[in-house]
Amino acid sequence: MYIQVQLKDVLERIRAAEERCGRPAGSVRLVAVSKTFPAEDVARAVEAGQTVFGENRLQEAMEKMPLLPKGLEWHLIGPLQRNKVRKALQQGFALLHAVDSLRLAEAISRVAGELGVAAPILLEVNVDGEESKHGFSVEELRNEWDGIARLPHLDIRGLMAIPAPAESAEGVRPAFACLRHVRDELAARGPLPLPELSMGMSHDFEVAVEEGATMVRVGSLIFGKRDYAR
Ligand SMILES: *Cc1c(COP(=O)(O)O)cnc(C)c1O
């Protein structure tokens, strides 16, 4: 019951946030983040109507996906190593959220070309500018954009960010706004429209919706507290 109730609550809060800021109902998709939770928990969410799931580790996703019904949409939301690109593409993820460097983007384009597909990806942006974090810095992305946009076997749908946690959800608003501004700037430059913005997690997804998210990645609020030792 817990998962169904929580899922319904998150969906209602997304709808309410859409309405508050005048966005059409259904503008924002919920990616239910099932990392560390067993396939049985995902199955509960599927019974409740959820079809889009996010995993952050390739190995864990590959173990879980065969245990669940076909026709679900799986997103890889965590970092991807270059030597695992082929495996990830063969696994059939609907979207790779965390493409965080030009070298990784090039590797994905090359392997996608070999497999005869266009890899659906988002570029991860380090909106806080902290050295230690994953993602393109805003400057890097501006400088490398023309090269990235020209890579032949990528389907670059938009941008993603994991801002540093703040005291309150409001504290993360500037980081979300930053990601949207960067998207708007690159989309204006062309040649790609970059419709998707993947931002917002359990603690701040409503603010992310208000700032233009088209996908929110919510885990613990739906599935419960994570036990990383499991
Ligand atoms: C775990 C994770 C989430 C979900 O986090 P919650 O706080 O549990 O909602 C979202 N995005 C990424 C990249 C994650 O790794």
TrEMBL record:
InterPro entries: Ala_racemase_N, PLP-binding_barrel, PyrdxlP_homeostasis
Cofactor: pyridoxal 5'-phosphate
Gene3D superfamilies: Alanine racemase
Origin: domain of life: Bacteria
GO MF assignments: pyridoxal phosphate binding
Limits of the Alanine racemase N-terminal domain: 7-226
Modified residues annotated as N6-(pyridoxal phosphate)lysine in this record: 35
Pfam families assigned: Ala_racemase_N (PF01168)
Keywords: Pyridoxal phosphate
HAMAP family referenced in this protein's UniProt entry, alphabetically: PLP_homeostasis
Record's function text: Pyridoxal 5'-phosphate (PLP)-binding protein, which is involved in PLP homeostasis.
Family to which the UniProt record says this protein belongs: Belongs to the pyridoxal phosphate-binding protein YggS/PROSC family.
NCBIfam families listed in its UniProt record: YggS family pyridoxal phosphate-dependent enzyme
UniProt-recorded name of the protein: Pyridoxal phosphate homeostasis protein
Organism: Akkermansia glycaniphila
